[in-house]
Amino acid sequence: MDYPVLAACLVSLCLYLNTLDADFAYDDSRAIQKNQDLLPETPLVNIFFDDFWGTPLTHSGSHKSYRPLCVLSFRFNYALGKLNPWGYHLGNVLLHAIVTAVFTCLAQKVLKRKFATYVAGLLFAAHPIHTEAVAGIVGRADIGACLFFLLTFLSYMKYVEYRTSAHMASHRWLYVVSVCVFTVASLLTKEQAIAVLGVCATYDVFVFHRVKLQEILQLHIFTMSHFRGLCEGLVLLSTCGISLVATRIYFMGNKPPEFAPSDNPASDSDCMMTRFLTYHFLPTLNIWLLLCPSILSFDWSMESVPLVERLSDYRNVYTVIMYISIAYFAQVILKQLNQTVRNPYLGLKSQMNGNGVHHNVNNGKINPTNCKPRLKRRESASSSENEELVTPSVSAKHSNVLIVSLAIIIFPFIPASNLFFYVGFVIAERILYIPSMGFCLLIAEGAEILYSMCSSPSKRRLVLMAVAVILMLFSAKTVSRNFAWHTEEKLYTSGIKVNPAKAWGNLANVWNEQGRTSDAEEAYRNALRYRGNMADVHYNLGILLQEQKRFHEALESYQRAIHYRPKLSMAHLNLGILTAQFGQNENAAKIYRHCADLDTSGLKDPRLHEATKISCLYNLGRLYTEEERYQEALSVYEEALKRRPSHYAPQSLYNMMGEVYSKMGDLVTAERWYRKALKSKPDHVPAHLTIAKLLQKKKQYEEAEKWFKKASAIDSKDASIDHHYAQFLTETGRHIEAEVRYRLALSKTTPDFELLFNAANAFRQNSRDLDAEDLYRKAVILKPELPSAHMNLGAILHINGKLAEAERSYLSALKLKPDDSMTMANLQKLRNLMANTERKGTP
Description:
Layout: H1 3-15, H2 28-33, H3 68-81, H4 85-111, H5 114-126, H6 131-135, H7 140-163, H8 172-189, H9 196-208, H10 213-217, H11 228-251, H12 265-268, H13 272-291, H14 315-338, E1 349-352, E2 358-362, E3 365-366, E4 375-377, E5 388-390, H15 394-413, H16 435-453, H17 457-484, H18 488-494, H19 500-513, H20 517-530, H21 535-547, H22 551-564, H23 569-581, H24 585-596, H25 606-626, H26 630-643, H27 651-663, H28 667-680, H29 685-697, H30 701-714, H31 719-731, H32 735-748, H33 753-765, H34 769-782, H35 787-799, H36 803-816, H37 821-841
Antiparallel strand pairs: 1-2, 2-3, 4-5
Helix pairs in contact: 1-4, 1-5, 3-4, 4-5, 4-7, 4-16, 5-16, 5-17, 7-8, 7-9, 9-11, 9-15, 13-14, 14-15, 15-16, 16-17, 18-19, 19-20, 20-21, 21-22, 22-23, 23-24, 23-25, 24-25, 25-26, 25-27, 26-27, 27-28, 27-29, 28-29, 29-30, 30-31, 31-32, 32-33, 33-34, 34-35, 35-36, 36-37
């Protein structure tokens, strides 16, 4: 039994079991919950033309993250359990356990010692840097890419081994196919994994063939016969890499992604020195996260890592130390490579044993006339090493581990380094999932060196204890960090120290959904104190204020959101709705039209913004309908139908077309549009209600009532259905039933003005005068600018004998509408009554 593999696999499973009951968090919402590509009705082929978030790759707002295999796995999860997060988390945990097992197998091949293999496998299983990738469901892309990365590398190692064997050379093509297939799979899971080709090339050149630097510079690898196999491998890797990168660029529309300045402030800096110093400091910070993952965060954007703007910044010292360390490792590697002795006269294949040393072989046998290696039988407890080997120096053995480890750390990190092209993040912990393998190999080899240097058992126990302590600390941190990923609230709270602006803004959204509106408002304002130009936070604060009826404050928030992001279509839409509520219809119409014509290129969620633009046309049409500008309304709705994207459901537009024709008196055409809305969506409640009203106009009361009842059966919790049904009952003289329906509607929702006003009228008609008075008072509070509200309140107060209050209400109504004859008549009657009452009361 392979105990290191089993141990590492079990540890990885145990450490992440507490993530199975976690909820969706952070990016999971957009990648899974709102991603149309997961739905069974979406054609499967779409995943090959859309990015990771469901946006077409060619769209200017696409993130250009091409990960169809990962999306396919999400789609499989959706087919099994819809949006139950348990299945998605289980998939991540199992995949991480598999990756841990395969990595431990690789560690066995590279490290060649059981103790070192145990350390590498357990360290990888327990490293806290992996929590974002495993506990965050979108991290599956990194885990899956790592799996294919490992399979590609292991396949290439086998290919190289078979390439040098006379008896097995023909079988190498099977592994060539494996290398190509796994490389394609890695690229289709996450782009970063294409770096495995660089690792394979490094292994072939510097570990297997131990090519000297001068041989590369003098192009000997292309001219000397014993490098023929190496050339074959490099051609294979180059062809595969160039083909895949070219295809990838073609699929994303030959355009790089666009990112907001807050995603990566260094790239937005105009100062070349700032960009240079920051870009070279960030790899140092990533290395520190691997060494000491004490502070982790769900997001490192914005000012979470302050820019390095001056040479005097102390952080430059860490950058210098890192590059000195890299230079030292390079010098050690080059020194060992230069010590390699190769017979230049043999056009022979080269085969590497377990320690990176080469046998020159001829027809599968060592040729004693051309090469006279010193053979020595090692007496080792490990049966895998009880064979005749060339005895290398100790440092030569370690240099192979050093080369492989550094290659695994550096090559996969290059795409995220900003050094060659702009990326949309400062630090992303899940990006370190693949590079962490190289880190674990280095630490394991270091532990092995320390262990072998210790002469006494007591010193060896100290080494074992130190390794055990590190593993326990990492495990504890992993478990603790997993709990932070349990809910969005815990996750964002844990990130306040690193990225307060982003954390407070996201935390506010969570609290708002929980109904903790005061906490949410405070959190929004905290976020804006740290970073005042966050358009999303201004917009979300506006929604909160609007829901609290603080309309003027909400209006200001929407205006600020638009100021900081002029293309934010949702802010324009809500601003238009609020402006219309204030009775400023002309301004509202201008806002709707401007929003409908916005250029939303470059925005992250084009589907949402395109749908919002159609919603603006929908609201503009409604505005024209209310103003009885029916032809203009029809023109707007027709425009909306022409511009409607495929993902925007048309039933509401069809229904409103029917409404306009109904108001114009063309009931036949109106009914046709209503039927079209129902055909588009058979359970569309507004269409049921509008058909019922149409039949009511035609005096077909029995048919009309059937449609009201159908609507109520579809959604028994919808208060608007009871409201419209109650209006129908009132108009048909069934006042008692109407009162029952109004009470149902009032119990289901926070009533708006229309519901309060109509219910009060119905109650008054049924002589429920005190109830009517209560509703009229509430209606006046909602719309104090309407004279009819004050007049009706005055009338019910008049009836209820509250004469002084009734007089004040009448006067308020006349102040708003001085020439209203009915109000003046009622006021005169009231004053006559008050005069008569006063005379009767006078002795």
